[in-house]
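Quarterly update from the structural biology core.
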Amino acid sequence: MKKTTQEQIIIQLLIEGWTNPIEAFKSAGTLKLSNRVGELRADFEIKDRWVQTTNRFGNRVRYKEYKIVKPTKKALAKYGL
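Predicted structure, tokenized:
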């Protein structure tokens, strides 16, 4: 049985919809979603947006969410999507 890589998990999350760093950590174990997205931008068209919320201490915080809009022809061939 072939193991699923961190990259494959992140790609699947991004295809399914908007993904934030906490979801990426829980699913793929990465603390650097922005780095992984940067690496994937060569093969995918990826949108991002800022999200603003309040943390448990009442402070306003911002973070980015990402999603794959569409894979390039290169990504279709490389990842078999």
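The mean pLDDT is 90.
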